[in-house]
Specification:
By secondary structure, this protein is mostly helical. It has a single domain (8-467), classed as Amino acid/polyamine transporter I (Up-down Bundle), CATH 1.20.1740.10. It has helices at residues 8-18, 21-36, 42-64, 71-78, 81-113, 121-141, 143-171, 197-205, 225-254, 258-262, 269-278, 283-314, 321-324, 335-354, 356-386, 401-420, 434-453, 460-479.
């Protein structure tokens, strides 16, 4: 049995760090601004509104089933074993691939801090491997180490995002709010058309508002999960949205030459704007804040992935489940599952170093993978509610449950299609199909593995009984 050592604050910090505002903003700002001009900022409001509806649905699900593995466990209880298995399969691989891409992103900043301005693919992969090994060590050290690092990351985020954003707005504003009405992109396409600038920017922005569901991935390690986890899911998304939108607005208004950035002539508009406004001396401290944000995100991703793997193994859902389902004697940590993420991550670094197209496939798939994984429990919840079989947990939307679930599902479908749409972006046309290629490969592999383990997967009801016992023990300890 896992130990409940995370509090409401810990689960919030965990979800917040999963996709940190620094990582989210740095990853999409230049792409979205080049695609749609300063008016891309309004896409934040659209994506946040859609994801907030998803967060409300997930808050209901985690309140009903506060079980390790989140999306995997919710989906199998809503629809069935096979459906849940493939939901977890999509989510697990999205987490692992995202973990590898974040480590490679952090490697670039670490290299710059060390004085290597243009690191080679081998150097980035080597630094990412060191990050992977250090992150694994922190995860194996126990939950206390994770809690300390996640709390430190929030401090770094507040200083690096809200602090710098406020300084830019107060003392380095170069543009008026009217620039938020300026579009960009290819004038030959309609701004709101399927291949138009705004929807392309919305596809990029989709990366900024995922990760809130990760609070459910550690559900059995959180005190009073039915009460605390719905708050963590909703509050983490809301806080991330506020920080990202505020920081993004500050940077847009502080950019010295918007036309150059929109034209793609500035490779790194965030970094260039900060150094232009604050001087070159700010470079190293800012990059250090970026590294902290990336490392916290990496740790949260690895933790989530290992918990999903462990949850699978507990149900007998993976080859080698008897090993993967093992917990360490002292801290009760899924050691084998953590080490599996390490091995897979190292393999992805090797592949990305050998073939650069592999890394591009990884990056492109990650955002679409999250929305695909989200769709499984959303569709399941919608079907159950339409059939009148839904039983709420402590957190409920009452009469609004069905309409919120319906709109959230529609939003997730549209955003997944928007992200995965094969727009002509790359010289190698197959890269425009990145999401579908990875989905196809993982689907074939997953079908083969599921067929081999299907007969020994435990009934979900057995784990429900265990969870009921856990809840009674928690209540008894509280009464004492």
């Amino acid at each position: 049995m896992l130990r409940r050592e995370f509090t409401l604050w810990s689960s919030f910090a965990f979800a917040f760090a999963f996709i940190s505002p620094i990582v989210a903003l740095y990853g999409i700002f230049g792409l979205a601004l080049t695609a749609a001009g300063p008016s891309f900022w309004w896409g934040f409001l659209l994506v946040f509104a859609g994801q907030l509806l998803v967060a409300f649905v997930f808050a209901m699900l985690v309140s009903r089933w506060p079980i390790e593995g989140s999306i995997y466990q919710w989906s199998r209880r809503l629809v069935g074993t096979g459906y849940g298995w493939f939901a977890g399969w999509a989510y697990m691989w999205t987490l692992v691939i995202a973990m590898a891409t974040v480590a490679l992103g952090a490697a670039g900043f670490v290299a710059n801090i060390a004085g290597v301005e243009a690191p080679s693919g081998t150097q980035r992969a080597s630094i990412a491997l060191v990050i992977l090994l250090l992150g694994t060590a922190v995860n194996l050290a126990g939950r206390q180490a994770l809690k300390i690092f996640m709390s430190a990351s929030i401090i770094a985020e507040v200083v690096g995002s809200l602090g710098l954003g406020t300084w830019l707005l107060l003392f380095h504003r170069e543009n008026s709010l009217s620039v938020l009405t300026q579009g960009g992109g290819d004038a030959a396409t309609g701004y709101l058309s399927l291949s138009g600038p705004f929807l392309v920017a919305v596809a990029f922005i989709g990366w900024s508002f995922v990760g809130f569901e990760s609070a459910g991935a550690i559900a059995e390690e959180v005190h009073e999960p039915r009460k605390n986890l719905p708050k963590s899911v909703i509050f983490s998304l809301t806080f991330i949205a506020i920080v990202v939108m505020y920081s993004s607005l500050a940077i847009i208004l502080a950019i010295p030459d918007l036309d150059a950035v929109a034209a793609g002539d500035v490779a790194d508009p965030v970094y260039e704007t900060l150094t232009s406004a604050l001087g070159s001396g700010i470079a190293k401290p800012v990059e250090l804040l970026f590294v902290i944000g990336f490392l916290a995100s990496f740790l949260a991703l690895q933790t989530s992935a290992s918990r999903v793997i462990w949850s699978y193994a507990r149900d007998g859902g993976l080859p080698g489940s008897h090993v993967l389902g093992h917990l360490s004697k002292g801290a009760r940590i899924p050691t084998a599952a953590i080490l599996v993420t390490t091995v897979i991550g190292a393999g992805l670094f090797l592949l990305s170093n050998v073939a650069s197209n592999i890394y591009t496939l990884m990056v492109n798939f990650t955002t679409g993978g999250f929305y695909l994984a989200f769709l499984f429990p959303l569709v399941g919840a919608l079907v159950v509610q339409l059939r009148g079989r839904w039983q709420s947990g402590p957190f409920t939307l009452g009469a609004l449950s069905l309409p919120v679930t319906a709109v959230a599902t529609l939003w997730a479908v549209l955003e997944f299609l928007n992200i995965s749409w094969p727009r002509p972006v790359y010289e190698s046309r197959f890269l425009d199909w990145s999401v579908w290629i990875v989905v196809g490969v993982l689907g074939v592999i997953g079908a083969a593995i599921f067929a081999s383990v299907r007969s020994r997967i435990l009934d979900a009801h057995l784990i429900d009984v265990e969870e009921a016992e856990d809840e009674r023990e928690d209540l008894a300890r509280g009464a004492l």
